[in-house]
Amino acid sequence: MLEHWLTLSMTDGIGPILSRRLIERAGSAEAACGASVALLRTVEGIGTSKASKIAASLAEARGKVVAEIEKARSLGVDFVTPEDEAYPHLLQTIPDPPLVLYVKGTLEPRDLNAIAIVGARKCSFYGREQAERFGMMLAGAGFTVVSGGARGVDSAAHRGAMSVTNGRTLAVMGSGIDVVYPPENRELFDQISDHGAVISEYPLGTPPIAENFPKRNRVVSGMSRGVLVIEADERSGALITARQAADEHNRVVMAIPGRVDNPQSAGPHKLIRQGATLVTRVEHIIEAIGALDASIPEMPLFEHRDEPAPPKIVTILSDHQQTIIDSLSIDPQDVDTITERTQLEVSIVLRELTLLTLKGRVKRVNGQRYVRVG
């Protein structure tokens, strides 16, 4: 039951690994919640010194569970536990999957085809551009984009995924799901919950302290079939995520090369030298991740795929984008002409032209003039 998983999750002194050892020793999650000091002493990693404190913490957590559930429901937050069908299958395969996921939004079977995009908070314009570009192209190809909701690369990847019709993205937080961090991303998190889900394993009200983020990063990696790194210095948390993905989760690590004179390129370039897949196109990602393990049900990436031809990326256009495409020809046209032909606002035309350029449907020539591609 939810109450039992939540009790264990909210108990100080035991994380996912010790909790599972306790469940195995006690026989069930329900029995583990009422474990005696004597039983706790027999659990590897707890022993005599911690048993009394953990027994007291279990009792305290049991008294908080009902209020936690009620508050979460009032915020529109659901819970997912390992007993639930919605619990991400790939996350179950890591050594220390969370006992409880707080979810604002929805988790869907197609999230099995997820790619994590991680990178620098203080990224360059190039880093933001590539994060948004690959977020958009991956979402257009049927992938769910997973990231950490942070400034820089994370936020750009989420926005790129949401720019595609039916694009999905998941943001994994390093705080309670009700504690918005960074605070300026409140609107972004609201949008993400409408295009996927905002997720946390931490109880409501948990502050975004530094020690939470390495734990958060294991969930980002664990939910994904591969991790794509875009800009990161050599001490970045993104590289820690990449190493964990490769060494502990058996995930594919990929990296986008950057400018050689940008310190933020040092991380991706180091990963590439160490064997990470160099990525410049979405096809490289599809080739790198390969097929899922036979024990995991395969989810189709594309609406239409004729074997043995290589998969084609499905580019889904919004109504505004289709209107702009229909107004273009092989002859270059300036923004004023496109605005007049489409009867759209200039700001909308400029935004959609940028996205269409990233999608490869429009090409900019001679400054601010555009032509249709294909």
Features of the shown structure:
15 helices, nine-stranded mixed beta sheet, alpha/beta, three-stranded antiparallel beta sheet
Task: Offer a concise description of the structure.
The protein has 374 residues and is of the alpha/beta class.
Describe this protein's structure.
The protein has 374 residues and is of the alpha/beta class. It is 43% helix and 13% strand. It has 15 helices and twelve strands. The protein has helices spanning 2-9, 16-26, 29-33, 37-41, 47-74, 125-140, 153-162, 186-194, 212-222, 237-247, 266-273, 282-289, 319-327, 335-342, 346-358, and strands at residues 78-80, 101-105, 114-119, 144-147, 168-172, 196-200, 226-230, 252-255, 277-278, 333-334, 362-365, 369-372. Strands 1-2-6-5-4-3-7-8-9 form a nine-stranded mixed sheet, sandwiched between helices. Strands 10-12-11 form a three-stranded antiparallel sheet. Strand 8, helix 11 (266-273) and strand 9 (277-278) form a beta-alpha-beta unit. Helix 1 (2-9) packs across helix 5 (47-74), helix 6 (125-140) runs parallel beside helix 7 (153-162) and helix 9 crosses helix 10 (237-247).
